[in-house]
Amino acid sequence: MSVMRRALILVAGLGLFAVLPAVAQDDQELLPVTQAFLLTTDASQPGTVKLHWRIAPDYYLYRGRIKITAADPAAVKLGEPSLPNGLKEHDEYLGDVEIYHGDIQASVPYTLADASTKTLALNVQYQGCHEVEPKICYPPNTEHLTLAIGGPSTIPAAAPATPASNAAALLGAPAGATSGTDAQPLPAEQAFRFEALVKDRGNLLLRWTMPKDYYLYRDKTQVTVASPAGVSVGEPEWPSGTAHHDEHFGDTIVYFDQVELPVPLEGTAKASTVAIDVAYQGCLENGICYPVMKRLVSVDLAAGTASVGAASEEQQAAAPAEVAPTPPPPGMKPGGDAPVGFIAAIGLALLGGLVLNLMPCVLPVLSLKAVTVLESGESHAAARRHALWYTAGVLVAFAVLGLIIVGIRAAGHGVQWGAQFQQPLAIGLLVYVMLAVGLSMSGVFEIGGSLGNVGSGLAARSGPSGDFFTGVLAVVVASPCTAPFMGSAIAFAFAAPLAVAFLIFLALGLGLALPFLLIGFVPAIARLLPRPGRWMETLKQALAFPMYLTAVWLLWVLTKQRGADATALVLAGGVLLAMALWWYGRNRGGRALSWAFTAVLAIGAAAALWTVHGLPAPSTVNVASDGSVPYSPEKLAELRGAGTPVLVDMTADWCITCKANEHAVLDTDAFRTLLKRTGTVYMKGDWTDVNATIAAFLEQYHSVGVPLYVVYPKGGGEGTKLSTVLTYDGVEKALEAAARP
Questions:
Q1: How confident is the model at residue 405, as a pLDDT?
Q2: What is the DSSP string of 501-565?
Q3: Helix axes of 464-478 and 380-410: crossing angle, nearest 10 degrees
Q4: How far apart are CA 278 and CA 236, in angstroms?
Q5: What H or E segment, with its residue span, contains residue 692?
């Protein structure tokens, strides 16, 4: 079809658009374009704006017709929008296109010319169609948005359920039956909108999109190859789901809103097309459960496209009442039973917690604990008491922190280990804590009682509260670190039932506390420690300086997140806090006026910290000095398409393990020479602050946090994860293998 003819058809179609709605009144009332493609926004995170489209049932949106521009290009510079992959189809007029159904979200980075600007003005253009009778396409629609930077998000939580008058009868329920959502159940095709996409020749992506209150069973989903012979389905890469107790199936895992399932295909080297049978089952919460649904996915490997059709009558007739569960993720038994690798996961957690004692992020707090252990050298009972209370603090903190993160993930939010260090308020609070602990060790004031009091007061030691607090603090500063063995255990906990996750986090805590438990309960080890004496007061004061250095490091991280103003505020607040603690130490048991003065100083410190919470992220763009390329999904796809080997490094300024790897390997001349020799591009993603794109990458590789290192080979194929703790030999071996044809 010629370009001129195609243009005439499009113009004619737009002319007919004016009369089509009137004709459609007899069959069905078409939605206004802004309701068919409901656009909501989130500019709460400075530096990134999120655009969310809620696409009504029976409508679709063109990916290639989404255009986002700045109303005033001189005031704001927009980066490349990050859009999800769409469903590939061939349009009669537009050729090969990608379309969206359900809910989609775009993230757009931006840089302001004036950092004090409070609003963001955007022009957002999009176009979509109605895919059932009457089939029409809307003309391009442009919305002019003025968003308050740092203002509240307007993005809704989940798509609303749409009533369907005859759906209950179709599913065998009485016509008047209603669910707990006060709406009749949707037809299966609308309740579980199914799509299939081809990622590459050996990988398929299956996607289910559900309205609010509908969920899909993980263990009731089955993917098999219908043809040709020799092609098989590998282990599907299920993401973390929601733990759910079902009266019919017991404890199981389900998915709300949307779930994407990467499915590897094996043996496709000689195949041109593949037919995939997909069977799945789901329910309406507090309502009905649907019968098994089956779909036939036809994959054209040469074209890289997939089409979804209904299963044949023979397939539907042969479908069992329940789908046999697919093999669950590694380490889990079918049906929600206890994990197959439960003992191994506990062992890894214990070992990972033990190794945490050697990580730089924990050493400052361990120096604090070392004083109390040495102090109790003359009394085995005191040593046991210190060890038990310290262990209690570690276990409680690990359990609370771990279960909070697991709970947030179960609610459908992608939170990784160490994400609390992305919050400036948490960073500032830790600066205060480290400063307070250092001042206590320097003798400005005392926490809980004397730790040294050498000489006649040697018997007076810190109480249980001090030991418990030290254990809690050790976990807090350890949380940005991911030690060897620890990542696998936490990843297992994220996918496991709540009780199993609880035990794994307790095992991590037990590993962290194990050295002090051995000192407290094994006299032979305790006897190896030096005898207490007057030298301990000097040691205690000397060990205050690692605390001050930790506070300096945290201030550096805060500067990266919120700029110099935030650092100045926290420093000023730290001075007020130090003055409050100094006055408290001098006037314990003093008059009410002294206490009031201490309280005023403390409130001033808290006010300075709270002000940091509202500061925007700095708008300056840092230029990499290590030769790395900033990470973006589009750039990674471009490099892989060109056949270039890539090393992706996901890091953060608050990640001590990341910094240790950079010092040992990634910032060396030998590594830069290795990159040139192998032709590898070094790509770095900075997760110091909240970044949805990097969080999605971590989710893709089932990483609980940073660091994450992935090597992509020259000839295509899946990326390979490297060890959390890098060695040059290991990196060299991986890059040389990736550079081979």
A1: 64
A2: HHHHHHHHHHHHHHHHHHHHH-HHHHTTSPPP-THHHHHHHHTHHHHHHHHHHHHHHHHHHHHHH
A3: 40
A4: 12
A5: helix 692-700
Across the beta sheet with 293-300, the strand order is: 222-227, 273-280, 293-300, 305-310
Give dist(CA 399, CA 282) in Å, integer: 32
- What is the rounded distance in angstroms from the CA atom of residue 63 to the CA atom of residue 44? 25
Q: Which of 272, 303, 86, 200 is nearest to 640 (CA)?
A: 200
CA dihedral 171, 173, 177, 181 (to 10 degrees): -40
Classify residue 613 by its DSSP letter: H
Are 276 and 307 in contact by the 8 Å Cβ rule? The answer is: no
Q: What is the pLDDT of residue 577?
A: 86
Q: What is the pLDDT of residues 352-402, one digit of tens each?
A: 778 777 665 565 566 555 655 655 555 677 778 888 888 888 888 888 877
Q: Report pTM.
A: 0.41
Give the number of other CB atoms < 10 A from CB of residue 412: 16
**432 vs 477: CA distance, rounded Å:** 13
Output the six-digit token pair for 159: 């798509």
**Around Cβ 674, how many Cβ atoms within 10 Å?**
20
CB 66 within 8 A of CB 83: yes
**For 504-563, how does the pLDDT look when each residue is reduced to its tens digit (9 = 90+)?**
888 888 888 888 788 778 777 766 665 655 666 676 677 778 778 878 878 888 887 787
The token duo for 91 is 């349009």
Q: What does the DSSP 8-state code read for residue 419?
A: G
Q: Is the dihedral of CA 107, 111, 114, 115 positive or negative?
A: positive
* DSSP-assigned letter for residue 51: E
The length of the chain is 741
DSSP code of residue 666:
I
Contact (Cβ atoms closer than 8 angstroms) between residue 214 and residue 161 = yes
| 642: exposed, middle or buried (Cβ count in 10 Å: 0-12, 13-18, 19+) | exposed
Helix (H) or strand (E) holding 242: strand 242-246
Instruction: Name the one residue in this structure whose structure tokens are 């061939």.
Output: 90
**Bridging pattern class, strands 67-70 and 95-100:** unpaired
Beta bridge partners of 253: 243
- Count Cβ atoms within 10 A of the Cβ of residue 737 and give its class: 0-12 exposed, 13-18 middle, 19 or more buried: middle
Structural Rg of the chain based on CA atoms: 30
Asked if residue 689 lies in contact with residue 559, where contact means CB atoms within 8 angstroms, the answer is: no
Q: Give the 3-state secondary structure percentages of the chain, helix then strand then coil, rounded to 5.
A: 40, 20, 40
CA–CA separation, 18 and 1 (whole Å): 25
Q: Which burial class, exposed, middle or buried, applies to 250 when counting CB atoms under 10 A from its CB (0-12, 13-18, 19+)?
A: exposed
- Residue-wise pLDDT tens digits, 289-328: 777 888 888 888 877 778 787 654 444 443 333 332 333 3
Give the span between the Cα atoms of 79 and 76, in whole angstroms: 10
Owner of token pair 């909501």: 40
Distance CA 406, CA 414 (A): 10
Cis peptide bond prior to 328, omega within 30° of 0: no
Q: What is the DSSP letter of 254?
A: E
Q: How far is CA 313 from the centre of its chain?
A: 42
Closest CA to 246 of 292, 211, 285: 285
Structure tokens at 383: 């040593």
Residue 317 to residues 257, 282, 294, Cα–Cα distance (Å): 29, 19, 11
Query: In 207-228, which positions are buried (b, 16+ CB within 10 angstroms) versus exposed (e)?
Result: bbbbbbbbbbbbbbbbbebeee
> What percent of the chain clears pLDDT 70, i.e. is strictly above it?
70
Tokens of 405: 């993160």
Residues 6+ apart with CB under 8 A from 140: 65, 125, 126, 127
